[in-house]
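U., I forgot to send this yesterday:
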Amino acid sequence: MKLTFLGTGTSCGVPVIGCQCEVCQSTDPKDKRTRCSVLVETEKTRLLIDCGPDFRQQILPQPFRKIDGILITHSHYDHMGGMDDIRPYCQFGEINVYADPLARESMLQMLPYCFAANRYPGVPAIGLHEIHPHEPLQIGDFQIMPIEVMHGKLPILGYRIGPLTYITDMKTIEASELPYLEGTELLVVNALRFDKPHHSHQLVDDAIAFARRVGAQRTLLIHVCHDIGLHETVNRLLPEGIELAYDGQEIEL
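Result:
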């Protein structure tokens, strides 16, 4: 299994438009962060988790091959605002998209032309499927277990896929979800910044504590904003086994 981080930033991305901070002005490519999205692949199966507004830019450097499924974590625009750009991949056939009830309804409203009775030629061919926490699904080589985390007061989905657990936009998680994470080798989880608490996102210390609860062998932090600091500096501050992910990073599992 190969994991490719397409994007690791928050809803504003990094650099933030108009910001003159040292992170936004950095020339280090690892400080350039598009909106969160990841590819999970084997030789036979390719999954995309979230499809934000930077999808076209993110996917252009990647090999052009079939996408077997798109897993949506939640209904916010930075996680599904790029769905129209999957059109080129529809030449391989209809693309199955999996979302919870709220994200499914939001997609119907955001892309009504994709689901009309008489669709305009060339619009994305989407097979939209409603999924729920703890109801496993099989897509090609992957057995996927959706789990529930809380994005403030909004329940959203994380995904357990074999040795990988992928969670973004989490503020809290119920203890009843933790058994689904047992045996996680690689944990990917959000960590907005070091300080200034946020109403719906956890901070770095929260992510470190969560990683220790899960007991993952390795943890990569995503959905980070410019306030977190420079990539190189932050990685020196993090404990062993925990590091910042970056756009374009590839991990073999």
